[in-house]
Amino acid sequence: MNKTNTTIYVIRHGQSEFNATLDLDSIDMDKEDTPEAPLTTLGKEQVASLAQELKNIHFAAIFSSDLVRAKETAEAILMERKIAVQTTKVIRERDVVRPAIKLGYKSIDEIEIWLKKELKTLDEKGKMNFSFSLELETPNEGATRLLTFIREVSVAYAGQTVAVVCHSNIMRCLLTHLGYAKFDELPRKSTQNAAYFVLESDGVDFFVKETHGIQKIQGEARGI
To answer: Which of 131, 141, 150, 203 is 20 to 30 A off residue 94, Cα-Cα?
Structure first.
């Protein structure tokens, strides 16, 4: 690694209660931050394993989405490090589900089937710029939101290593935006809980150096 470059670990949270059930009835449509689901027992085991894997990485800072599932994951990664988690709304998930519920969809499977049909005829550029609602970011907009935050972190912590704990959809959008994979190669199940990828950046350009728990999937259309 170039000593002036920043290394960024972009990490998905462990399994949350919503991940385990996919119960749309758990979403309070009157609140913008639900499902505010904590980690399950399995999720805590996943992040404990991840923390062990990363224990020898010297993180100068750890940032997290302000949602419980991400904060709990970041806190587990801290272990005995003498730094505090810095939380922000800026790197919350790209929320596809809530706008779809408003259109009458009742399950994740229903939403997924519908979106696959909507996206089927679009080319790569069209998929990355697709939105079915004024309330919904396009994949490119979600990727840009996360990338802008990471760029600011890269400049602030030049030459150091940081962690950013966030969410699956926005991570997959960023990987596609950076050219690591095509849109359809990263469907919902391609990114495991507690998966991560490592970026190296000079504050301008970003390079995907490695991935863990993320698998490109061929021959399957992406919905969510």
So the answer is: 203
Please report whether residue 78 resides in a domain: yes
The verdict on residue 145 lying in a domain is yes
Q: For position 56, which CATH number holds?
A: 3.40.50.1240
The reported pTM is 0.95
pLDDT tens string, the chain, 224 residues long: the values are 566 899 999 999 999 999 999 999 988 887 766 567 899 999 999 999 999 999 999 999 999 999 999 999 999 999 878 899 999 999 999 999 999 999 999 999 999 999 999 999 999 999 999 999 999 999 999 999 999 999 999 999 999 999 999 999 999 999 999 999 999 999 999 999 999 999 999 878 999 999 999 999 998 899 99
Residue 1 located in a structural domain: no
In a domain, residue 132? The reply is: yes
Q: What is the dihedral of CA 141, 144, 148, 153, to 10 degrees?
A: 120
One-letter amino acid of 42: L
**Cα distances (Å, whole numbers) of residue 4 to 33, 35, 57, 58, 161:** 37, 39, 17, 16, 11
Residue span of the structural domain in which 19 resides: 6-214
| Cβ proximity of 193 and 39 under 8 Å | no
Kindly report whether the peptide bond that precedes residue 35 is cis, defined as omega within 30 degrees of 0: yes
